[in-house]
Predict the 3D structure of the following.
Amino acid sequence: MPEASEALIHLSGLTKEQLVELVGSWGEKPYRAKQLWAWLHVRLAPDVDAMTDLSLAFRDRLKSLCASLRPEIARHQQAADGTEKWLMTLADGQTIETVLIPEEGRGTLCISSQAGCSLNCPFCHTGTQGLARNLTTAEIVNQILLVRGELLRRQDEPQRVTNIVLMGMGEPLYNYQAVAQAVQIMLDGNGLAFGSRKITLSTAGVVPRLAQAGRELGVNLAISLHAARDELRDQLVPLNRKYNLAALKQALQSYPLKQGRRITWEYVLLDGVNDSDDDARQVARYLSDLPSKVNLIPFNPWPGALFAPSTPQRVERFQQLLHQSGYVTVIRDRRGADIEAACGQLTGLLQGSRARPVTGIAAA
Ligand code: SF4
């Protein structure tokens, strides 16, 4: 029942059914589990003491058996455009990042699934830091609880977090079990209550896990493309050397996409590397038989980065070419540039990491 290897129980990593079972094993009535669930996921209690309608004896038991409900906030920053970033310190000292991107009528929370990442994409600051470890289900869910709880604490509206993207530090499909349980908890209609259309799992393309994720989770799928020819993608997304573009496409052709949904393709535009007219045409050809939309992401430079952002003219031209080929193509704003809000940047600053040298990336 408790998450393995930890003596303490991590309440926010339990599904409602597991919580009912746990509380029942202590001889408590099922309604106690309901109350506790509501305190955790709806009333966003920062600690057990806040759960004032639970008996003192029950609260004492929770305090003695359960881990603290919130990670420590190592740093919080807010950008001029309203983007907010929290750097959280986990129980073992690892740090992870969570970013809230407010937009008209919605707020997207970008959460991490691993501390660091093993995939080493050279344009990504997290990739320069290597993998420390997988996050537990509780550590994934706690990012949402912490941010909603912080909004509530400052008398803002917790429901401002309307969308979740698993697009922060790490490759979610390399931490599948913990991510799958976290998604199950996010989807619970009596808790965090995110609809499956409001959750997006972003992967670099872990081909053997795609079908399972599609079948079991039913959330939106985003894929980091960044190049539509193997020679270049091998460099920009090294996972491509294991699962190349043909293997990725084959997996996606049988992917159980829900009706009316499309795959979102993420494409970071790097000046002189993957932003030519030819690159755009290759992308259009590659996507031609898949229901797709494209997010173009102007590169957010970080200290020591080996790449520069494409010019606005290049970005627009790239978009125009994809539009002409019939793809919905959105240029994502560079949000939070003044607080290093691109993936892994704040952790990198604290750790003083540097980019690894990359050779052989040919201009397209
Ligand atoms: S872009 Fe994503 S998959 Fe690649 S190194 Fe960064 S976090 Fe990992």
